[in-house]
Fold each of these.
Amino acid sequence: MSHPRVDLIAGEARTAIAAARGASELEQARVRYLGRQGALTLLLRSLGTLAAGERPRVGAAANEAKRELEALLEARLAEARARERREARGRQRLDLTLPGRRPPRGSLHPLTLVRDRIVEIFAGLGFSVAEGQEIESDYNNFEALNIPRDHPARDMQDTFYFSEDTLLRTHTSPVQVRVMKAQPPPVRIIVPGRTYRRDVADATHSPVFHQVEGLAVDRNISMGDLKGTLALFAREMFGPGSSIRFRPSFFPFTEPSAEFDVGCFLCHGGGCRFCKQSGWLEIGGSGMVHPQVLKNVGYDPEEVTGWAFGMGIERIALLRYGIDDIRLLLENDLRFLGQFA
Amino acid sequence: MKILYGWVRELVDVTLTPEQAAERLIGAGTEVASVTRLAPAGLRGVVVGEIRAIERDLGESHGHRLLLCRVSTGREELSVVSGAPNTRVGVRAAFAPPGASLPGGRAIGMATIRGAPSQGMLCSERELGLGEEHESGLFELEPDARLGADLVAHLGLEDSVLEIEITPNRPDCLSILGIARELSALTGAPLREPAVALKESNEAAADLARARIDAPDLCARFTARVITNVTVGPSPAWLAVRLRAVGLRPISNVVDVTNYVLWELGHPLHAFDRDTVADHAIVVRRAARGERFTTLDGQERTLTEAMLVIADPRRAIGLAGVMGGANTEVGPRTTRVLLEAAWFDPACIRRTSRALGLRTDAAYRFERGADVEALPVAGARAAQLIADLAGGSVARGLIDVYPAPRPRRRVSLRMSRVRRVLGIAPRVAEAARILGGLGLPVTERGEELEVEVPGFRRDLVIEDDLVEEVIRVWGYDRIPSTVPGGVTGVVSQPRTLRQEAALRQALAGAGLSEIVATSFTDPVTDEALAGDGPLEPLPLLNPLSEDASLMRRHPLAGVLAAIATNARRQQPDVRIFEIGKTYGQHQADIVEPRWLAVAVTGARGPAAWYRAPEAADAYDAKGLAEHALAALGVTATEVATPEPAAAFEPDLHGVLVTPDGRGVVEFGEVSATVRERFGIDAPVFAALVGLDALLDHEPAPSRHQPLPRYPAVARDLAFLIGAGQPVTAAEIESALRAEAGPLLRDLTLFDVYRFPDGRRSLAWRLTFQAEDRTLTDDEVNTIQARVAERATAGFSIALRSR
Ligand SMILES: [Zn+2]
């Protein structure tokens, strides 16, 4: 559909658009033909003055031309803007190899990372977190856990004392006693915390260290459940192929007692210096809560059974990150602290 | 404890190699730290030789006369040069023929010495790797040693030593017999207890000695044997070799036998020279307070009433269960031996041994619990051995004082309990077999076993102890892997942990490194930091060292130590935080409050092309503290002047206060005196947040505010403050806020400038906005003028023209 009057204006407009250099000349062309006083706009506005028979033809042709010109202008305008941006960039080119503006990067301590991971895994298994105090009574740290005074089992944990009855806890186990005394069974807790033993510091010993202790007490809970729980933990913590092993041991507050080892994830059982060529890494101690301990907190050992385990956070951090000296952990050299995620 | 494997195999018929035996023992709970061959590594081909003739003197060399000898190995005769002082015809000694090798891989060949051919080498103890002796010359052997016999075999060195480490509950494993019993239970091989074929004389022991227990609570049983007509002398080689192999020094036949039986049966014995015991009468009694007594090692010791002594009517003659006395020691002139085998209270022995610092093999066993039933056997075994080795005869009868014989404990084991505790159980017959194999008499009653506990297993007290015995032997590998059923409720985390997690996330996100520091400190640093604080110090009774002798009382101790460490290691720019505790006595209580400590020093951030280098200052500490508080939902913007504290510079020390008036953060510049104590040269800025107080300050849940619907209008106001005018930014700001009224949406101090002459310029941006309409310029102009007037007039400061 066309009309000579419309064709005339549209033709002029196309020429002007084609000739325009840059965005501002395109804008001028738009104003001249499509603006409020533009030629095509005026024509559309004057339709009423035309003969009734001509109006539809001219109107249709003019509207069609308007759409065509608008599309054309938009396309040329986009082209022109892109060209102008290119030219502007060319004038002040950025060196994209300069370092970016980075926000400062902080770090969490490896002991925090390991502890949080352990707590997270056990939270997924239904364990709530409990905490206790580091300065403890001799009763909670030893006697309630079936370790009387003048018993050789005390040699297993060299202890810092403040007085005859007050000491730095040698394990997180006193929290077991506090929690069980405070609530009836069932219990399922995980206890992370700082512990102390009077060991001279060397590559593998630190008088200040951290443990995580787990405790489950319920009507029907067995050493098999302990093994299964630790196996799940090992797979989450050390990788899906991890296996665990129990070895008989002795802790006065568990009976039976077991050391638990995890298949060495560094050499996959082939033997390396971390596992002393055995293929197994010693991770912690565990066992069924001794009936006497249950009695000490007012539980009935014929009603409920329970198990407990404990492991050193440092030990796991050393293995996980391949750190060969425990003393690095409390030294806080920034070059060390920045290595863990 | 060192255990000779060949000795074990005399008591149990196992075919395992030493390594295999060690593995089985470890699998059943007895730790074996090492397995070592007795023979020195590399010692091969050395035989028993005899010097048949000395053929020629080859002259002196390094003070030794070199002799050319003819040495026989029984099969051949060889020419050998020897420089040893004990070279003489007829002596049998260790001889390394050509082809033999010595420890360290030294191969023996043919040599020519002073023109004479030497076919091999006569060796000293040191050259054989068997000891340190060298100057005395050849390692001499008994005259009847078989010529040509392999030296390693001849000396009984074809054996291995297992280094055993027991857990405190298993003193029975501190003996050859105990280990043999374990191996018997684990393999099913029969146990052969050492045979005692006692030949008693007609003389009655009761006529030769008497005994009485005056402290039956500390000594349950005292037995003695008397052996007469002994000749004290050196032990035979086989005994000396065994003792040396397990790390004991041979002394004399009588003493060595007591040690031998101690190792073999696990029971400590003591031999007295019977004729030095006054009235030949033994009294077991408590020591008198202050009683002095000289032990076998020649030390005089002062005793207490808590200690037990073996005495005669006149004086103490032994420190019971720990060490004998010098006054009754068996010596070369001893002819009659009184041999003690007794049972002492473990706690008493442990206290005595620790109090005197006297840790002996005997005390180690008694404090873990000896076998009260084994005394007659141990005494008989040792008495007969003494009679055999030192001549003499065993007097008839056992002196046995046992006021209250201890019955054997009976413990029953339900198979249902085994299954309940372990999640699995063997058949009852298997359980019975296992317990029987451990030397425990068992009676089967359907699904229940009744076990009689002999004296050597006093650790077995309750049913679950037997559960452990069963599974220990049956195998921990058989315990299934199951997962506990049941739900115990919602998993919860203490608020402390959630609070700490929020802080860690915020501060690590802000570019700080978390540190973990020791709880210990030294008294001088502690006093410098916390001497004026609220906590009394908590010193350790038994610190490892003076610089870790008490608990830290101040939360800056950790971060300052870390800054010092990094500064020494060329890392002057440090931004760190610690979430930790301090410890101290507060009135009657011991407290361990939790803290957040933030510290920065050096440059604010790493050098970068897009940022000018800037040194950190007190506002970093303040801003980080505010950031941390924001993570906890706590607002504290007001700054108050704190009580002076030694840890901070007096003029650069502030407290952030919450709207309800509680000081929650202390911040500022760390006092130069304190940081210099740590060896830090550069200024350190720090903030401390007491975390416990913020726990009962759980913020109200956030409430949504509708977004503004009308545009905001911003106006800037800058003021000029004369040098020396004390007015603070906070004072001006609160005046601005009060005067601006409810239309003020936001107030930001965006520029601070200090002129060289001391005048200050502070500029604020005030943002106005109404909830119900668009503000007009006139409206805002009026407020702005009022606000400016209030500030300039109120503080006598000038409005800066823009
Ligand atoms: Zn490995």
Amino acid sequence: MDGFLITVLSNIGMISFVALSAYILLLSGQISFGQQAYFGIGAYVAGIATVMWSWPLAAALVLGAFVAGAAAGLVGLVTLRLSGIYFAMATLAFAEIMRIAAELFVYRREIGGIETGPDGIDGFRDIRYLFANDISPFQSCLIVYALLVAVLATLFIVERTRGGRMLRQVGEDPLLAEVNGIDVMRVRIAAALSAGAVAGLGGGLYAHLLTYVEPRSFDIMLGVHALAYGLIGGLGTALGPLLGVLIDIGLLESTRVFRGYRMIVFGGLVAVLLIVRPRGLLDEVAISRIRQALRRWRHAGD
Amino acid sequence: MVALDLAQNTLDGLMVGSSYALLAIGFTLIFGVMRRLNLAYGPTIMAGVYLGTAAFISLGAPILVVLAIVILGASLVGLYVERLCFRPFGEGARTASMVASFALWMQIEEAAMHLLPRHMNPFPALVASAPLEIGPLMLRADHLVMLAATLLIAGAATYLLARTKLGLAIRAVIDQPRAAAIVGIDVERVMMLTFVLASAIGGIAGFLIAATDAQVTAMIGMWATTKGLVAMMLGGLGSVKGAIAGGLLLGVLEAHAQWFLGPQVRDMVAWGLLFVLLAFWPGGLMGAKALDRTMAVGRRV
Amino acid sequence: MLELQGLSKHFGGVRAVDSLDLRITPGQIFGLIGPNGSGKSTTVNLITGLLPVTRGSIKLAGEEITNLPTHVRLSTGIARTFQNIRLFGQLTVWQNLWVAENARAQRERASFLSRWLGGERGARTRITRALEFSGLADKADELAANLAFGEQRRLELARAMAAEPKLLLLDEPAAGMNPEEIGALDDRIRQIRDSGITVLLIEHHMELIMAIADRIAVLNFGQKIAEGTPAEIQSNPAVREAYLGTAA
Ligand SMILES: Nc1ncnc2c1ncn2[C@@H]1O[C@H](COP(=O)(O)OP(=O)(O)OP(=O)(O)O)[C@@H](O)[C@H]1O
Ligand SMILES: [Mg+2]
């Protein structure tokens, strides 16, 4: 496989984690502009773990996801009672605080004779774990997709549990959910926590595949894009946000057909698409159609 | 000399804050009638300012002509945003509507970059006179113009809302969109006019900021969106008065933070204040709206 | 069954519910009527905890529930329908009925894990039964938003019933129905009462309520102006005045 294709595929995979993260919150009925914060936390924590503490990659990724999830849970505790724009702005505020904190964050140490570590606004460079362990770009890409598939599989399973149903019920109508015996706050905190962990996992991968992460990597643009991907691809299934990423990064950015005019074309298309399908391409209606068709097909087979 | 610093910072902050106040007024008007965020607000302003800049660079247009172009450009682009991102979306599709406005953000910014590809461009300066000295304090003349313009526009907006027929209709739509429709107000038209009005006000804010800097950068769209949003939220998201208070508060806060803590921390302070207010005191500045279930329960039940 | 004492709810200056006392005995159909805006729906919102009370107390089967969080009230046995139909529109009919299983798990004090995973076999049969009972069996995979109006009303009632409540609050269930559908609803509500469930029925449709209510209370401006059997209410002059207005 050629290098460019691998890079594109890896990018799609890594951004998908943030898109899924925003999607989980969207399902719970909350709009977050700030999932990039947990992406950043995951990136820095995982990077520090392999570079400064010589942890193995797997443990570092888990730690990154864990810290990001914990942070998201804590932030959720104080922000999730807010609704609509208030919640969205609180998440954005937190993400911007984290980004600026990263600009100020310096933690340098000498490792193997070279000074290394996060260096304020210049970011955190030389995260060489993959390189040092002879893991090729192709293999790293496989790691990204293995983890992505694992996250997706978990989401698909959760969707079929009571927890997943409660999530959608809360997202649709929190008041009705409450009347029907659902502890809305608890469901939302669980959602925020998992969303943070998923974004953190993506961030950990990002830091290692790119060998660096800088505060700019997780600015507001990443957060709002992540949100948009779910709405473009569709809120009916966890594959929706992936479809969104695929369309944007895969089709438009990487094929370079619309070089220099990509956003002019894409921006207009997205607006028109959303008018026609306000809940995305793979929305609930599409999914329920597919499910009905499958059921009929299965019955016909009997 | 700390007292003097404090006074000078406060003064500077009020001046810069007045441009934030204008942005917040525009945001508040749009949010009021639409009940959703227009993320393309900043880029709308950018489009107007870039059109004005292009006229200035290539035709040498005088400053008042530039101002007219900026206002007109922002209004037209605002109209475009309204047509594509707000009018076609129903109550149930607020998130889609907001994401559509984000898509247009990207679109408008790219279009603006085709118009003026350089990161930084010159802009006609407002007034080139030396700063006034009031005792030990310094006051830039262009800052004074900015403050005066803000007060003028805020006054005009308040008058429009309180005294004119259009203002009455706007307030009715903000308050009770359904009831407004029932009593015969053309809600769509009111929304459109509000949108154009807000975009024009944003255009003026963009013009003032570019003119006091005598330059404009590609960051102006992002700048206008974030500053306007923060100022609107700090102002409690409800009234023109709140928007002005929020804008001035943000300006003063930033001026002090920049002076004492540096530019990076400056931005952190504003976001930090917003976060703390939302997380720990949402009923305070924001009023009951942020939490109160009575609103959510509403008449639907 | 249900006891309201001095229950009040003020919205700013509006006294939507004003020192309301009610006692509903088990196994009854209790009618609550009153002109528009007299506080009927607000009363239901207070009983279900959607709105915090301003003053007064709510007791269910002798137990104080005034300040119980909304989401645990279903498991104490209170279920409701809404005046303006409220369903999970983007979820399927089947998924809408699943909601009741949450309350069951809560009531049966299932462990958090089994509540979260929730794969009990009983649920499937229960939901299938509810689907058949409400005549929606062939619509199980349809999105609730795509149902016809009458079907939505039936689904809402089925959802409330699936929670196996002790007290069922019906807020204008006949609104927008044709006479035939109202007849079916009449039968359905009687069936529900006969199965031992207490019903609080809010209705503007006088014929229906006079025919099936065991007892009726009348609200006006948030206050109870009369209570008694349907016959007593029909001959009460204060009630006539409230409905016809003082000018008449
Ligand atoms: N969430 C709310 N916020 C403010 N006022 C409210 C709210 N809910 C109800 N009200 C007011 O309380 C009063 C009682 O309303 P309620 O809905 O309980 O009347 P109702 O008897 O159910 O009327 P209807 O027969 O029209 O359904 C009305 O004046 C109404 O405007
Ligand atoms: Mg009512």
